[in-house]
Specification:
Layout (H helix, E strand, L loop, with lengths): L1 H8 L1 H25 L6 H8 L5 H12 L3 H17 L3 H9 L2 H13 L23 H19 L5 H24 L5 H28 L2
Length: 219
């Protein structure tokens, strides 16, 4: 009880500490992928994941990863926002549309860090890719978009508790399935996926804090 009271009294400080920790972790990870060869960590993980590939699993991973393609993700975001507007959740719709900013953040970081993609001589490439590798924009978007949905569902008190739990679990599954698919398809290294997840969490913190503040101050 005292611990929970302490957390409640120092939540702003805790929030800032988590943000700073994530930023430092991403910087360290960026330095790692810049100066350390993927053969020391990433290659082993990719080969383990790709060891038991099947046609059915290939199709499933391609389907999951397809949702993160730029044209598809843009359509998915606006369709979700439209549904929210029709249900009279306008603030939630704006929040969902704002998750598209994560793609721009990821593209800028890719250009700055400029890490090459996994090559055919190292892994099995099941998907044609372009642009740089780190961080994974697919995972960044999945983390931000589905994370935003989780935050929205948690604040929708009109939805039954069991339904909310199911929706939250589904969103979490999509985040981790999306991350797994990028390595499985040979499109990214594990550290690319981890970097995308970290930046996605940071984007979610930034956008989510604005959303939560707005719904708390709403009349």
């Amino acid at each position: 009880m005292k611990f929970l009271t302490y957390l409640e009294a120092n939540k702003k400080l805790l929030f800032k500490a988590i943000l700073m920790s994530l930023v430092v972790l991403f910087i360290l990870l960026s330095l790692f992928v810049t100066f350390i060869s993927p053969e020391y960590l990433d290659l082993h993980i990719s080969r383990e994941i790709q060891e038991n590939q099947t046609r059915n699993l290939d199709a499933l991973m391609i389907g999951i990863s397809w949702l993160g393609r730029t044209p598809v993700s843009v359509v998915m975001v606006f369709l979700t926002a439209l549904v929210l507007v029709l249900l009279r959740y306008r603030k939630e719709a704006v929040f969902i549309v704002s998750t598209l900013l994560s793609g721009l953040v990821g593209l800028i970081l890719k250009i700055i860090i400029n890490r090459p993609r996994p090559s055919q001589d190292l892994v099995v490439l099941l998907e044609k890719t372009q642009y740089q590798s780190f961080p994974s924009v697919h995972v960044l978007f999945y983390t931000t978009f589905f994370g935003a949905l989780i935050l929205i569902f948690l604040h929708m008190k009109t939805i039954k508790y069991t339904v909310r739990i199911f929706l939250v679990a589904t969103c979490l599954l999509m985040i981790f399935a999306g991350a797994f698919s990028r390595i499985y398809l040979g499109a990214h290294w594990f550290t690319d996926v981890l970097g995308g997840f970290i930046v996605g969490i940071l984007c979610l913190f930034a956008l989510g804090s604005v959303y939560v503040k707005n719904i708390r101050t709403a009349p």
